[in-house]
Specification:
Elements lengths: L5 H10 L5 E3 L2 E3 L5 H5 L5 H27 L1
Antiparallel strand pairs: 1-2
């Protein structure tokens, strides 16, 4: 379903990139977390990264963007 191996899933759970809870010996991923994991929805962390990248680009190339906008 995720398009990655079992080992990759376990690594992502361990690193915190994938939210899951352990019940007994099995890990469960909540259905509400699946759209973000599958890349259907942009999560808050990704939104923050995008905003930071845009801010850096505008700071570095703001004048160039303004000139290109006039063309």
């Amino acid at each position: 379903m995720l398009g990655i191996s079992r080992i990759a899933v376990f690594k992502r759970i361990k690193s915190g990139k994938l939210k899951a809870r352990k019940i007994g010996r099995a890990f469960y991923i909540e259905r509400r977390d699946l759209p973000e994991v599958l890349g259907v929805v942009v999560g808050e962390k990704e939104k923050k990264n995008i905003d930071e990248a845009v801010t850096r680009a505008v700071k570095q190339y703001g004048e160039t963007f303004r000139l290109l906008g006039k063309e």
